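Regression test case RT-17, inverse folding.

Input:
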């Protein structure tokens, strides 16, 4: 009984071993078929499962740089010389219709606004020897211009050189008659304050009539309303860049006098400009911009003036022989030459020539034109040349 039990146990153990061996073989290689001697192998070390093929690692992809977006190139604007100054400006700016504004020069009107921004400034005597300005704007339009004053015929003649938008507050009978008949573009575009009051305003810090002002943008809008169109302009004068510093003189002055205002220009070698002073203002400054008045060119011309005899009470209004020729002094790059001015018709430009009859070349920038009568006693002018040698350096005192 015990033997049979022992045999049964051994059989069970053997059977179990065979099952385990078969299971291990099958699990190690699921597709393998057990060999006929599998039972005998149960007493040996179990067979190792057949390793499966190991896949080769692939190369890690190298990241590529993300392209950086580039800015779209901005085209360089085409620049051309401004017709009244020679400054490089865009074609659009060079095509602006010039605007001429009459500006007061009585003591209560100083300092004026807008003069530093003008391309060209004309100054000439009015009645009683009191001078008046006409500032011509083209490549720069300031936010404040004034005080605006009345018109005179000879200023219309200078504005007519550009068929300018002509801005004024009333005028002499002669001037107003001319503007009524030829103020729609024949000579100028008549921008009278009494007709277009909305373009002007009065400031509260000054008394009338020295408080009438306007702005550059408003005048542009008025010009378009009156039919003044932008166009391509040809410069009436020749311009060149500043002379090299080493060829400019040291010092030099220009002095011109009207009965109620004396103007002095002091040449500044570094900036190649003429620093302007007037009676009551040692350093004339634009009230609108705070900029010192300092043109690149100063022209002094003598012209025949006479009483207009239009019935004006008090000092008679003046008329001038604007078409013709006369003596002129042209100052630029610190040096002054004596020559002539010529104007052949009302709408023709006033041009300037040297003693040999050659047209002068001005420096790029602003020009002031000082118009005097032929009377050297009442309207004197003097020119002091600068020196080509630097001023002596003061020797410090021993004490």
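Golden output:
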């Amino acid at each position: 009984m015990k033997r049979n039990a022992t045999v049964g146990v051994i059989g069970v153990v053997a059977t179990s071993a065979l099952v385990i061996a078969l299971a291990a073989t099958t699990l190690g290689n699921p597709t393998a078929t057990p060999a006929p001697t599998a039972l005998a192998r149960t007493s040996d070390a179990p067979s190792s499962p057949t390793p499966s093929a190991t896949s080769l690692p692939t190369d890690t992809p190298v990241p590529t740089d993300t392209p950086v977006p580039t800015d779209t190139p901005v085209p360089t604007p085409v620049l051309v010389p401004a017709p009244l100054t020679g400054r490089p400006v865009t074609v659009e700016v060079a095509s602006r219709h010039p605007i001429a504004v009459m500006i007061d020069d009585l003591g209560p009107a100083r300092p004026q606004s807008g003069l530093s921004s003008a391309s060209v400034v004309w100054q000439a005597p009015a009645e009683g020897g009191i001078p008046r300005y006409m500032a011509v704007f083209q490549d720069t339009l300031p936010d404040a211009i004034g005080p605006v004053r009345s018109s005179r015929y000879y200023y219309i003649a200078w504005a007519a050189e550009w068929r300018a938008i002509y801005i004024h507050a009333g005028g002499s009978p002669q001037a107003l008659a001319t503007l009524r008949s030829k103020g729609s573009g024949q000579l100028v575009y008549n921008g009278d304050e009494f007709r277009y009051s909305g373009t002007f305003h009065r400031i509260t810090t000054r008394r009338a009539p020295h408080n009438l002002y306007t702005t550059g943008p408003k005048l542009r809008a008025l010009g378009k309303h009156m039919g003044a169109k932008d166009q391509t302009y040809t410069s009436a004068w020749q311009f060149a860049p500043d002379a090299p510093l080493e060829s400019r003189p040291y010092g030099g002055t220009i002095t011109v006098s009207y009965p109620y205002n004396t103007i002095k220009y002091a040449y500044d070698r570094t900036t190649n400009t003429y620093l302007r002073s007037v009676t009551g203002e040692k350093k004339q400054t634009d009230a609108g911009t705070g900029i010192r008045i300092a043109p690149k060119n100063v022209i002094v011309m003598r012209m025949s003036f006479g009483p207009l005899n239009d019935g004006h009470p008090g000092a008679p209004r003046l008329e001038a022989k604007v078409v013709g020729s006369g003596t002129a002094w042209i100052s630029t790059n610190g040096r002054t030459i004596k020559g002539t001015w010529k104007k052949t018709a009302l709408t023709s430009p006033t041009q300037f020539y040297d003693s040999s009859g050659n047209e002068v070349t001005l420096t790029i920038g602003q020009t002031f034109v000082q118009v005097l009568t032929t009377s050297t006693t009442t309207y004197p002018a003097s020119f002091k040349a600068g020196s080509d040698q630097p001023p002596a350096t003061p020797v410090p005192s021993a004490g």
